[in-house]
Design a protein that fits this description.
The protein has 138 residues and is α+β, with helices and mostly antiparallel strands. It has one domain: Bit1 (3-Layer(aba) Sandwich). It contains five helices and six strands. The radius of gyration is 16 Å and the shape is globular.
Length: 138
């Protein structure tokens, strides 16, 4: 994916218990880290010369939404060429293997999948267009 992205936002279902919400953010973050070139900055040295592994180099707010808002983001992003989206569903979170996740997901249409989180990356304008009205996850 492009290294021209200026912003990513992770949106989590506001009804998830804290542990499942953290799991959702972690899973989405790993996928973004793998597929979005340049999102992780270079290693940084401290005053003692010790290296600290690079972290995200662009804003990455964690927001909250309800299930219908999450589905709307996925559907709207599907037609957008200026964003990269990773979605995470209750199917994925409840599956015991990737094979089970793959099989179960193949049985459900996009609009009916139970989305519990999404990560959206792109220009600030594109990410804000899809997530700008959502509150921070607190």
């Amino acid at each position: 994916m492009s290294d021209d992205f200026e912003k990513c936002a992770i949106v989590v279902d506001k009804e998830l218990p804290a542990g499942l919400a953290m799991n959702t953010v972690a899973a989405l973050s790993l996928s973004v880290g793998k597929f979005v070139d340049g999102i992780v900055g270079d290693d940084v040295k401290d005053a003692d010369g010790r290296l600290h592994t690079g972290i995200t180099a662009i804003p990455l707010p964690v927001l909250k939404a309800d299930a219908s808002e999450l589905r709307d983001i996925v559907v709207r992003a599907a037609g957008a060429t200026d964003v990269f989206l990773v979605d995470f569903t209750a199917v994925a979170q409840s599956s015991r293997s990737y094979d089970e996740y793959t099989r179960r997901t193949a049985e459900v249409p996009t609009g009916e999948l139970p989305y519990i989180g999404v990560a959206v990356c792109g220009s600030k304008a594109a990410v804000n267009r899809l997530t700008g009205s959502l509150p921070l996850y607190r």
